[in-house]
Amino acid sequence: MNDPVLKILKQYLISKKEEENYDYLSKDEKDRFRLENDDDARYYYKNLHMTESDALFADVIVSFWTPYRWLLEKKTGWNAYKTDKSLKSLIYQIETNKKTDYNDKIRQVNSSIEDFARICYSKGNFMLLPKRMMNNERYKLTEDKIDLTLYECFENGKLSKYFESDDKLKEWIKRQNLNILFKNNIIARSEINWFVPSVNKKLFSEMSAEEICEYLEKATQFIKQRNEM
C-alpha cells in the first residue's frame, strides 16, 4: 500500500468497527479503549510508559481528518464523513480501476498531502494537554490548528481558562516543545509564527484548497522538527 492517505483511511475503517459498542462502555472502559486504540494516547502510554491517567491527556497537534475532508470537498466536490459507509465509498474511489468522475481528482489530492500523511501520526504531532476537557473545546474553536490554538490560550483567549496565567501557559509551551512556533523563540501572542499568516484565524472549513495545502506543508515541517527533539 503506497498511498499513506489510503492507509490512514483503512485504519479509520477498522477503528469504526472496533467502536461499534463504544457508547455502551463505562468511563473506565472508554479510557482503556483510548489507551489501546488512539495513536496519541497509546504513544505516551506504551512507548513512554506514562501512567494511564497521564497518557489520557494526549492530543494530536494538527489533525489529519479535518483538513483532508475539507480539501477533498474544495478540490473534488466529494463529501467525506467518518462513517463506515462514507469511508468505504471513498476507499473504493481510490482503489477502483473503473473510471469515475472523482477517482483521479481524489488521488491527486492524496498525492499532494502524502508527506503530511506519512508523519501525522508520529510523535512530533502529539502533545499533552493541561486538562483533558480542553480536547473537545480546542477542536470546536480551532479545528485543531495549532497556531490558532496557541493564540486562544493566551490571556483573553477562549482557551486561556485552562491556564492559571500566561506564565503557566509559557511553561506548558516549553514542556511540549511548542516554543518553536514563536518568532525568535519569544513566547508571546504577538510573536506566533502563523503557518499561513494571511488566514491566521480562519478555520480549515473557511480556507481555500491552496491555503489548506500550504498549511499542511508548514505543519509537516513543524512535525519533522519536533520528531528530531
Explain the overall architecture.
The chain is an all-alpha fold. Helices cover 55% and strands 3% of the residues. The protein contains 12 helices and 2 strands. The protein has helices at residues 4-18, 27-37, 39-47, 52-55, 65-76, 84-95, 103-112, 114-119, 134-142, 146-153, 166-175, 209-227, and strands spanning 58-60, 126-128. A two-stranded antiparallel ribbon has the order 1-2. The longest helix has 19 residues, at 209-227. The two termini are 29 Å apart.
Offer a quick outline of the entry:
The protein has 229 residues and is an all-alpha fold.
Please name the defining characteristics of this protein.
229 residues, mainly alpha, two-stranded antiparallel ribbon, 12 helices, 2 strands, 3% strand
Beta content comes to: under 5%
What structural class results from the helix and strand content?
Answer: mainly alpha
Shape field: globular
Instruction: Characterize the main sheet.
Output: 2 strands, antiparallel
Number of strands: 2
> Roughly what is the average pLDDT, rounded to an integer?
96
Rg calculated over all Cα atoms: 18 Å
How far the N terminus sits from the C terminus, by CA atoms, comes to 29 Å
Low-confidence parts: none
Report helical residue fraction: 40-55%
Q: Which sequence of SSEs, written as H and E, runs from N to C?
A: HHHHEHHHHEHHHH
How many helix segments? 12
Widest beta sheet: strand line-up:
1-2
